[in-house]
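To close the chapter, one final illustration. This time we ask the reader to focus less on the individual chains and more on the assembly as a whole: which components sit near each other, and how the overall shape emerges from the parts.
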Amino acid sequence: NAGVTQTPKFRILKIGQSMTLQCTQDMNHNYMYWYRQDPGMGLKLIYYSVGAGITDKGEVPNGYNVSRSTTEDFPLRLELAAPSQTSVYFCASRTGGTGGSHEQYFGPGTRLTVT
Amino acid sequence: AQSVTQLGSHVSVSEGALVLLRCNYSSSVPPYLFWYVQYPNQGLQLLLKYTSAATLVKGINGFEAEFKKSETSFHLTKPSAHMSDAAEYFCAVSLDTGRRALTFGSGTRLQVQP
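The assembled structure is written out below.
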């Protein structure tokens, strides 16, 4: 059972370039999330999805886009990369339904540098 | 809206000493609370979670946390620190509605001195 996988692990982008961060989970979870972690800070929610075809903005969505065409995949698209997007990006998933105690499972992260 | 405050961005203890990492939350409805650990260059691993079943929650690696509603706190403790406990620890809160996303504190880096 692979859990949540993310690719790539590391990436360096030039200002203005675009890229897609991939996230896949094999646990049949409905809810998926993208967070970013800046140095010395906790994680902040970028986008989330409650099921295939349904996405919504989190706290810091500017400069990003997402799609959710399947239950398994939740890619994060960066358009026109900026230095402020230098961060570590984590994808997470959890089962749906009531019961807030359901834990989120995190991927290993993608470390992105924009120069 | 909910929020989490972790007091102390860095905590240093001696090996064998008590570990106490502080977390206070703010929530308009009963929250669900979590502690995650992050080792260098790795993802987040769940240590323990408060599910409203018991106020004292035991987790992995000898950690435990106590939910105190009157103090809006969920402090993490371990009786005896081990060198392998050196990591970053995050307290997080979620609600049982809407996005069900986690709201994180800013983290506490634990150093364990030999």
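The longest strand of chain A covers residues 43-51. Residues 33 and 48 of chain A are 4 Å apart (CA to CA). With these observations in hand, you are ready for the problems at the end of the chapter.
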